[in-house]
Amino acid sequence: MSSPSSSKTGQLPEAQSSGPAELIAEAIAQVVSSEVSGGGLTGDVARSMTAEKIPLERPKNRDHGDYASSIALALSKSEGKSPREVAELIKVGLEKISAITKVEIAGPGFVNVTLNKSSQGAIVARILKEQEKFGEGHSLSGVKINLEFISANPTGPLHLGHTRWAAVGDALASVLAAAGAEVTREFYINDRGNQMDLFGASIRAVAINQERPEDGYQGEYIKDLAKLILAQHPEFKELPEEEGIVAFREAGYSLQLQEQKDVLDNFGTHFDIWFSERSLHAGDDLSKSIAKLKTQGHVFESEGATWLRTTDFGDDKDRVLIKSGGELTYFSSDTAYYIDKRERGFDICIYMLGADHHGYVGRLKATAACAGDDPEYNIHVLIGQLVKIMEGGVELKLSKRAGTIITLEELVEKVGVDAARYTLIRYPVDTPMVLDIDLLKRRTNDNPVYYVQYAHARIAAVLRNAKELGVAVGIDSYDPELLTHERERELLGGLAQYPEIVRSAAELRQPHRIARFIEELATLYHGFYSDCRVLPMGEEKPAAIHSTRATLCEATRQTISNGLSLLGVSAPERM
């Protein structure tokens, strides 16, 4: 039976550049590979096993070691052995690595691993070396992703639904980039169709002191737009009705779109591309997309109309591209837009849509399949549920400016950018959520964003005090062998989880995992700070333990800061 290559050196591989979890996963993978080479393991699952596939978790019970793996259960079926038999093979290989102090088999075949203090503490060295890049990985390297996370009409202020996507989409883009992807943030401007004419007619009506159309736009902002346009173009009032509607429409479009950009900029959300729906119709995108779909064999004519046979790929009905009268459908725009994205070189197109767009999922995936793509890889659709705002125990429904639901700008005015962004991101997007304005204004620990930011500011204060007291902070002053307290072990374990949290958040498209993690890390830090004195007291002189714990504090501060940065939330030094 061969031994893993890492046992020849007695060390875990790349001990200074990886976290403990990654190192153990690599060590287990090497043991499995060695057993395959030596004939101890012969199944297909073992032959294809890599470190990335090794199941690993952090046990809550200290008696179960630093890490536990169910790898033996995963291999047992293809091996024709019991999980405990497979676990025993892995145990023997891991025991030859000097950085591992204990390996035990528990339950039906779990492999529990305990590291020595130096290996546990190596994560701090990694954090201090990588700093702002700690947590970044390569699981999505080489993948080009188009992330469309706001699709709005340029006919009014961005509302609460847009606000959720403005926060979550921006955070998801950052998380995907941290996992190695090349991400393009895209805003889709719905600047075509009847709603644009109603917008122009509404502004014109106000400008010439007429009643707005019954189905037009009624918000106060229409008066503001009319006033601004007339200040620049008083001659618009004299234009015939049809020309006047177009003139006010285009001027209002320009002003309203700029306001949306300004509001998003203030919210910390920036787009790489503002894509106009009109552009699809101005060029030959539509004809090119239909031609491509025809080559795939899914376009057909019926009753004088042109259809896409999306039922071939699970859609509930076939979709009309061109009506019998020659009019293009909204679906034709959606189809051309998807094909345009793919022809721009994007591997994955992610759509973030509102709660009323569930019906789009099937048709978008079917469209991708009709275009010859893999609908399970090339296109992902996320549906966001509704957000309610409560203030003083009452739900807020009306906007002062828009006349409908609360706008992004109004929410920021009430609670600030950080509180709004953090709270919107920390919940899974497929669940409805309630924003409690009164809670978000509190500077107490029951306000999640305050809780995390306070932890960061508290650590920053500790580090300032350490400097004043002459306590050295840094890897040269860090001795992991001194970290023997259970609270220290818990904090080290928490820090080591961060790269995996980022990876899973990216691959599952769930940026809320970052928020929940840094909240847990803040809790671990508060427990550590309470039970482990960091700084010398009174006449006590600085010692190695103070420097080691202060350096652990710096690693924790850096990790919380990195997490907040991915969410687009500030990490204050003082509060």
Structural summary, described in words:
There is one protein chain. By secondary structure, the chain is an alpha/beta fold. Among the domains are: 6-115, Arginyl tRNA synthetase N-terminal domain (Gyrase A, domain 2, 2-Layer Sandwich), CATH 3.30.1360; 448-567, Orthogonal Bundle (Isoleucyl-tRNA Synthetase, Domain 1). It has helices at 6-9, 20-38, 44-47, 71-79, 83-94, 117-130, 160-178, 194-207, 221-232, 241-266, 277-282, 285-295, 330-343, 358-370, 408-415, 417-425, 437-440, 448-469, 486-507, 512-531, 544-567, and strands at 67-69, 100-106, 110-115, 144-152, 182-189, 273-276, 299-302, 305-308, 319-322, 348-353, 379-383, 387-391, 394-396, 433-436. The strands form four sheets. The chain has a five-stranded parallel beta sheet with strand order 6-5-4-10-11, with helices on both faces. A three-stranded antiparallel beta sheet has the order 1-3-2. A hairpin with a 2-residue loop joins strand 12 (387-391) and strand 13 (394-396). The longest helix has 26 residues, at 241-266. The radius of gyration is 29 Å and the shape is flat. The termini are far apart.
